[in-house]
Amino acid sequence: MAGNPRALLLTVLRVGVLALVPLSAAESAKLPPENERLLLYLQTLQSDTLEPEAARNQCISLVYRVPESESLREIAAGFFQEPTTNSLVVFCELLVEAVSRGRLTPETVNEALRGRERDTQLHAAGELFRALHFVYTGLADPLSEPER
Prior knowledge:
Layout: H1 5-19, H2 25-29, H3 33-46, H4 52-63, H5 69-80, H6 87-101, H7 106-114, H8 118-137
Helix pairs in contact: 1-5, 3-4, 3-7, 4-6, 5-6, 6-8, 7-8
């Protein structure tokens, strides 16, 4: 990703445009059932009661059912420089790995999906993609605590 600033810029622009779409408090407070189940899987993964492979498979199954999956597919493709056909799979693999390693919490994912306040939601989305970036690149995040 570091080698292609244009792709990074396009991704940031896409995320920025999506972030500008206003949500009412009622819309942001409720999540589609797929997102609720994904959060449940991430919580059980974090508590070591679900194997990462099962969480990954559930994530992939659920993320394709979410109405916004096409937007996420494009964002993930640009951010991780993956073909759009594979980008949601990569997103789920990285999400599960980040939660398994303790780099990301289900609470942060929840806030990114449903943040009650726009600033909080955008901050959580930034944390989510930051964690995924460092898992993807294999680099150490200088701002994060050591992995568990």
